[in-house]
Amino acid sequence: MNAIKLFYAYIFTIAALIICAELLLEYRHYNLGYTTPILGTKAPQEKEYSSPQLSPKFGPTEAFPFKSRIILPKKTTQLRLWIASSSHAVGGRTPAKDIFPNLICKAISTTGNCETINGSGPGMLINENIQLLRKYAKTYQPDYAILYQMSLEISNQQKLLTSSRVPPPKNHAIINTDYLTKWLQQTSLYTHLSDYIGGNIKLSGLLKEELPPSMATDFENRIISFINTCRELNITPILTNFSVSHDLSNLANMHYSERTNFVKYNSYLSPTGWVKTLDQYNSLLLDIAKKHEIELIDSRTVMNGKPEYFSDFIHFNKRGHAALAQIISSHINATLETEHTQDDI
Amino acid sequence: MTFNSINFALFLPIFLILFYSTYKQERLRDIILLIGSYIFYMFWYWQYAALIALSTIVDFHIGKRLDSEKQQNRLALLITSLTVNLGILATFKYYNFFYESSQLALGLFGIFIPDLYHQLLLPVGISFYTFQTLSYTIDIYRKKISHEPSFTKFAVFVSFFPQLVAGPIVRAKDFLPQINSPITINSKDWELGFQMIFLGLFKKIIIADLLAYLAVDAVFDNPSTFSSFDLLMGIYAYSFQIYCDFSGYSDIAIGIALLLGLKLPINFNRPYLAQSPSDFWKRWHISLSGWLRDYLYISLGGNKGSRFFTYRNLMITMLLGGLWHGAAFNFLLWGAFHGLILILTRNAIIEQSFNLKMIGKIIINFHLIAFSWLLFRVSDINTFNEYIGGLSELSLTSSLSPLFYLVLSTAIIAHVIPRNFIERITTKDFIALPTLFKSSVYAGLLLLFVGASIGTPTFIYFQF
């Protein structure tokens, strides 16, 4: 075979093998309901909302950018709860009716007069929760703002710590191909390879057992900023401590695929270091709540270290959403009762 | 773009399709090579392609005139070429260093200079293509070659993309004759080229980047938190990281050139099996050490004088070799250390047959070179002191992972495997296998590279 024929033989065979592998993996992902770059999505979200039980009652829509039951600007004396979180409160593939923000009001004693605004979005940090609150609080006038945030803040702090090692290259290229790179990174093959090979490599790296002390201060400042914003907007802030599927006692039992997935979002801390940091930040939340005289909802006693409530390390499954909704609503009921008692007195 | 990027994985096949459909028409082939090379470079920082174009235009015209002018004018022309090329190099590579140093020095006298130095970004590969064009004009001046009459071919010589940003530094006498005749691509060379690309990627992604991630970066960032044993492993790991990173790039460059029917000189020959520092320099970055020997050491008088004169020339050559890497004190120290060990071991005898003495010499020499890499890698003198202090504590615990030891062992074993054995496997046994099987191996390797690429580390020598 001459060199040119050899070139075409190699290129076509290698490309064919890789494309076949991608299609096989995508087919599996597609059937599991994931969005895939070639086959698309089996059950698009719009369909979920267009089902008779849910649509058009649930957002997000253009006019109502929240994944919660669509409500009008406040006119009456309703109880309105604002949920400030990230992907934990969005639910991914969990239907809107089953995620915790949309279950809370069902168990609140003022049922029928309670509404939730789910001011959460995938990848949202506390600062973005604050921005959203500032933007919409005047229109929707929530009475309570419940903050459930931690893991993403820790991931972001790690990014800041590791980004100094490898500064992102500035793009001065004649053609910008970032979109192509992003598309390729969404392929099932890339996701699998980077999760399994890259994940195992990352786990073998010199991961740390704790974050520098300045990071805890930074986290504390963000929480305080949330509290101050709520007070400024006449909303009562409520903090929630943060639960995960594994704690130090059962971390060794964590499935290997979850460990490799873990390092995808945590480039600095080891799994043990991460759990320790969560413990430290949860204690910090308790201190902040005491110091600023605000309520702290305890989800950890019931849920922390219990994989049965989670679909992965940090995201709830249906049972987890229901459990957290129950914990939050019980707390709100107790708060309301106390307020009524005080009013009566 | 870098060889380990998605952009390059798409660029290379497209470029090869265009090249193979035109390579028999010489003029069209040269234009495709030139355009491809500039596109390759402009994927990094398109504005700086103008610098390559400037060097090309200046040296093409100077080369042309050098062939026809009288001796006196020839010297003036050579000086012009040196001034332009070294002027550009000095401006972009050493300006920051001198600006910063001047700021510090004048600051002592209370004179304040504002921070402007950071505004100059170092053009990738500037040291490589500058040395390449300089060798062209110096060789014409020395009447070793005559000028290249075709501007396109000369421009291809300066900007040839496989070796443009990190070598090997190619001499005009080796490259220009190849593109001045019809290119033939035989299937055996093509297969070897393809293998070399994968070998280079393996060295870069699986060995160099993993050693960096699993040990080197952390150990050199904060040496005081590691045991003596880990610090020693950090030096070994960096020695193999820099070797696999740099030689991996050269392998890919040589491999791509082979796919195009062109031959580039080898740049590395198992350097850590050298028995003395001078033997090391015959095996490490061969194209640079050859350049420094031919255009600097010999120009300074070489060894044609007293012993002191030779030592002085060796030291100047190595100091400038250190500075070639960048304007920083650790590169200067690195160069000085190499100058010193070259002087001290100048009369070392190389063992010809395999024996215990040879092994001893290899081990001692490797440790001398590894120590020089410590000087090369540390960020400042405090880190160096911290590192040496940690090494002297003689603590033997290790926090490095089994994967690290696996990667380091692979690098060491691959370095010492007899060349005949590797050549037999690559040039005979593997080539004889069915194409479908070989494609599956390459596809598997590609997927391994994709999975193992953590972050997007660039090649170490891009910064030089």
From TrEMBL, chain A:
InterPro entries (UniProt xref): SGNH_hydro_sf
Keywords from the named record: Membrane, Transmembrane, Transmembrane helix
Organism name: Dasania phycosphaerae
TM helices/strands, residue ranges: 6-25
Domain of life, per lineage: Bacteria
GO molecular function terms noted in the UniProt entry: hydrolase activity, acting on ester bonds
UniProt-recorded name of the protein: SGNH hydrolase-type esterase domain-containing protein
Record flagged with keyword Membrane: yes
Automatic annotation (TrEMBL), chain B:
Keywords recorded for this protein, A-Z: Acyltransferase, Alginate biosynthesis, Cell inner membrane, Cell membrane, Membrane, Transferase, Transmembrane, Transmembrane helix
Subcellular location: Cell inner membrane; Cell membrane
GO cellular component: plasma membrane
One Pfam family recorded for the sequence: MBOAT
Principal location: membrane
Membrane protein topology class: Multi-pass membrane protein
Keyword Transmembrane: yes
Any one of the GO BP annotations: alginic acid biosynthetic process
Domain of life: Bacteria
Keyword Translocase attributed: no
A GO MF label: acyltransferase activity
Metabolic or biological pathway: Glycan biosynthesis; alginate biosynthesis
InterPro entries cross-referenced by the UniProt entry: Ac/AlaTfrase_AlgI/DltB, AlgI, MB_O-acyltransferase, MBOAT_fam
Membrane spanning residue stretches: 6-23, 35-55, 75-92, 104-131, 151-171, 192-215, 235-262, 331-350, 362-379, 399-418, 439-462
EC number: 2.3.1.-
PANTHER family registered for this protein in UniProt: ACYLTRANSFERASE (PTHR13285), PROTEIN-CYSTEINE N-PALMITOYLTRANSFERASE RASP (PTHR13285:SF18)
UniProt record similarity statement: Belongs to the membrane-bound acyltransferase family.
Protein's name in the database: Probable alginate O-acetylase
Organism from which the protein derives: Dasania phycosphaerae
Lineage: Bacteria, Pseudomonadati, Pseudomonadota, Gammaproteobacteria, Cellvibrionales
